[in-house]
Amino acid sequence: MKKGMAKLSQQIEDFWEWFENNQPLLEAVIESDGHPKTDDIVESLDQHILGMGKIKWEIGNPETGQFTFTLSPNNDREILKITKSIIAGAATINEWSFHHSAQATGQLQLQVYDHNMDIQDIDASKWRAVLKPRNNGRYELELEVPNIEYLDEDTQMIATDLILTALLSEENKINSIMGLKIVFSFNEEQESTAFSISDLLGRLI
């Protein structure tokens, strides 16, 4: 086994040992607003997870007695391999579900912070898409997003990325989309092949 892989394997093993040892505290922190150990848990999770790569993490409580732990590889295909390895090492815990990338929600409405840290409402229900086939079964995606033209460019891209994740899941997005272009009005050529963004997943399957 290569040195890097051996190190990662040990990091994964150490993380899940820590996780199982701290499971009751993790659950208490998730369920309690302002738990005194929240900062300690966040710091420990950061140390473990960020030590394995540029990975985001999120813990949640979708319903009473149920918990989620989700990793995000930041849209990176190579990091996705790492997050898959991490989650593969998880023990089966009835109250917990574990995910190696952000999951699809199907939601077309969400909120984002713009460059001024103001909350902006995003409604993608009328956005349209054009797919252009590229290599290895992947696509270049063009999106018509007329109702976010007023936002700064960074916020436009963040909002678009979040909507695509919500529709496709992060893993499907990484594996299917190799390029993204956003416009505010399709030209005549694009109009001929445009479809509702709500149909995007079905077009990729």
Describe the structure.
Helix content is 41%, strand content 24%. The model has no long low-confidence stretch (mean pLDDT 95). It has eight helices and nine strands. The protein has two domains: 97 residues, no CATH class; 96 residues, no CATH class. Strands 8-7-6-9 form a four-stranded mixed sheet. The protein has a three-stranded mixed sheet with strand order 1-2-3. It has a two-stranded antiparallel sheet with strand order 4-5. Helix 5 crosses helix 6. The two termini are 36 Å apart. It is an alpha/beta fold.
Radius of gyration: 19 Å
The total number of structural domains is 2
Order of strands across the main sheet: 8-7-6-9
Low-confidence parts: none
Give the CA-based shape: globular
Helix content: 40-55%
Query: Total strand count, please?
Result: 9
Mean pLDDT: 95
Work out the helix count: 8
Q: How is this structure best summarized?
A:
This protein has 205 residues and is of the alpha/beta class. The chain contains 8 helices and 9 strands. The chain is 41% helix and 24% strand.
